[in-house]
Amino acid sequence: MHVTCFGEILLRLSPPDRQLLVQAQGFDLAVGGAEANVASALASLGHAVRFAGVVSDNPLGDRALAALRGCGVDTSCVARAPGRMGLYFLETGSGPRPAAITYDRAGSAFALAAPDTIDFAGALAGARLLHCGGITPALGPNGVALAKAAQAAARAAGVPICFDGNYRAQLWDAWDSDPRAILRDLVSQATILIGNHRDISLLLGRDFSGEGETRRREAADAAFAAFPNLQLIASTARHLVTSDHHRIAARVDARTGGYQTDEIDVTGIIDRIGTGDAFAAGVLDGWLAAGDLATMAHRGLALAALKHTIPGDMCLINRAALNSFNVGAGDVRR
Is the CA virtual torsion 296, 301, 304, 305 positive or negative? Predict the structure, then answer.
């Protein structure tokens, strides 16, 4: 059995050496996108993974599919269509300057696709889980229709759904959208939610009191009450010291209790993009192995921490590297 991931595969263009876009004379290219990042991370850990989506019927689409296939992801359910690939440009942060993203995704082959372009039934046949998220519906009405079609196919196949909130204000603000109503509908179908108290505040239209673990548990209880299908909520807490030094803890909540890790220091950061997707993959790795809340939280935290050391969107960490993860152990493994 496999995990099915659904979303838009993107091309990322970044000026080298932490340059600003206004300085750029050339760009480094990487393949990514939130759901593709989860797919590649799970496949790198040895899971069977199938991807559903649409890419351009041109060499850029070939490049995107080659990246996923190179990780061991089954791309047989990725449709090809005329049009452009979605792009984003990343200015890598440094010291006190944060990273910045500029999207160029409007009118991509994925964003314009009709739901029947994708063989959702085939992609979900025999699947253990559908992983999808809030970026697809943020692309516009077509994206909303695609997200709903993917979830409807999962329900028809009896496949549980993991939904990553992944709120992207730039995308939602670009059209006459109602993100709260749209996301509430989609989250109501999910068994697993990747999202923190801020995501839950958006969904429920309310704030939560307290700090730290107390606030996160209050938010989780409210989400469990609002969404009867929901069984698990996973999130990270991130404190930024500089662009190159973060402190991160992971939390997983179930209806009957929760578990939060200690905070760890992540320094010498190479690339923050995709770390949330690596966390989601680590949590799902624990869930797929029927691990307890602590196992899911620690695997998520470990994979997220390791992704900070890898350039590009994707976390290509294998099982041995994940199992040997040790905070502060930076010597050569021989």
Answer: negative
Query: In degrees rounded to 5, what are phi and psi of residue 97?
Result: -90, 120
317-329 average pLDDT score? 81
Residue indicated by tokens 């206004």: 22
Amino acid found at 74: D
The architecture that CATH gives domain 2-319 is 3-Layer(aba) Sandwich (3.40)
CB 286 within 8 A of CB 296: yes
Answer whether 53's CB lies under 8 Å from 110's CB.
yes
Q: What is the largest CA-CA distance in the chain?
A: 56
Rounded distance between C-alpha atoms, residue 296 and residue 298, angstroms: 6
Q: Give yes or no for residue 217 having a pLDDT over 70.
A: yes
141-200 residue pLDDT tens:
999 999 999 999 999 999 999 999 999 999 999 999 999 999 999 999 999 999 999 999
Q: How far apart are CA 71 and CA 64, in angstroms?
A: 12
* Bridge partners (DSSP) listed for residue 30: 12
For 85, the 3-state DSSP assignment is coil
* 6 touches 18 (CB < 8 A): no
pTM over 0.90? The answer is yes
Q: Helices 34-44 & 275-288, crossing angle to 10 degrees?
A: 50
Give pLDDT tens digits for 22-60. 998 999 999 999 999 999 999 999 999 999 999 999 999
Find all residues with CB under 8 Å of 214, minimum gap 6, and list them: none
Q: Which residue blocks in 227-334 are alpha helix, DSSP H?
A: 275-288, 293-307, 319-323
